[in-house]
Amino acid sequence: MISCPECEGAVVLAEPPHLNEIVACPECAGELEVVGVDPVALAPAPEVEEDWGE
Amino acid sequence: MSGPVPGGPVVVLASRVRAEEKRIIAALRARGADCVHVDTRTLAGAPAASDRSLVLNREIGQARAAYAGSLLEARGAVVVNSAAATEVCGDKWRTALALGQAGLPVPRTHLALTPEAALAALDELGYPAVVKPLVGSWGRLVTRVADRAMAAAVLEHVAALPSPRAHIVLAQELVAGGRSVRVVVVGGEALGATWHRSEQWRANVARGASARALALRPDHAKLAARAADATGAEIAGVDLIEDAAGRTRVLEVNHGVEFTGFQDATGIDVAARIADHLIARTVRDA
């Protein structure tokens, strides 16, 4: 378990977390990116850009 | 010597690791492949000839995907899908052109170099019609214009967008009355099909449409495989659209196919098929 960098809510990650994986905070619903795995670190995920897609 | 190293690492290039990327990485590792994930945002380099990696380009941003593919190919890597395919599939005009030149059925499509010219193109196509940006996915900014007044208003908004590229407009006939079908193609083979059920006219899964399994018809399989081939895409999500009379046209070829909904609906393990294709390429191209 790790704290959400936005709201300090408790985020539970799949084991093992994957670098650049996107997870949602269950408390604030913010999208978070796994930016480190050893130790685990979260940061707000980048905003969706205009040319994102399939 | 060129081509990927036999049994060498398979690089999965992605700045955003979604369910699809995790499934592909797991499938590669389950097959004993040395799979490395690289964050596209960390890439920088110059042309060289020393890189013999096999790279699966899963970058979510079109501009980054195209340039990352170009850079890695210039460094000697084999990139799937190729940079050229990424360029074609990521541009709706170039896609329509490639499909049309291959003799495949596509909706009547006009390219307009200004929003003003787009109005004339739409008049020629007839209403209702569709206005699309050149680049974009998930149905973003795709607008159904019911009549000339609505088209003029939409194009006024288009003209106000800051990017010069946004002022180049794709005008397309509206194909309606039938189903929107997705066929996933890997290595030239159509794996299966879904159709998209939506409460609104844009039947993109990213817009809340649900994917439902559909028996793969031979004509859909052939059309999708030919469409992927026409754009140079080895791995593709091909969107087909039927009209009220059941005639099918090719709408899009998606080079970075999102397949979670497809996989859940059909039970087809797309990640496994992608992994098998990549591993076969490390042998074939070595």
TrEMBL record, chain A:
It comes from the Bacteria. Pfam families: Zn_ribbon_LysW. PANTHER family: LYSINE BIOSYNTHESIS PROTEIN-RELATED, LYSINE BIOSYNTHESIS PROTEIN-RELATED-RELATED. NCBIfam families: lysW. This is Lysine biosynthesis protein LysW. The lineage of its organism: Bacteria, Bacillati, Actinomycetota, Actinomycetes, Streptosporangiales.
UniProtKB/TrEMBL annotation, chain B:
Keywords: ATP-binding, Ligase, Metal-binding, Nucleotide-binding. GO terms for molecular function: ligase activity. InterPro entries: ATP-grasp (IPR011761), ATP-grasp_RimK-type (IPR013651), ATP_grasp_subdomain_1 (IPR013815), LysX/ArgX_preATP_grasp (IPR054562), PreATP-grasp_dom_sf (IPR016185), Rp_bS6_RimK/Lys_biosynth_LsyX (IPR004666). PROSITE patterns: ATP_GRASP. SUPFAM superfamilies: Glutathione synthetase ATP-binding domain-like (SSF56059), PreATP-grasp domain (SSF52440). Pfam families: LysX_preATP_grasp (PF22626), RimK (PF08443). Residues 96-279 form the ATP-grasp domain. NCBIfam families: rimK_fam. This is RimK family alpha-L-glutamate ligase.
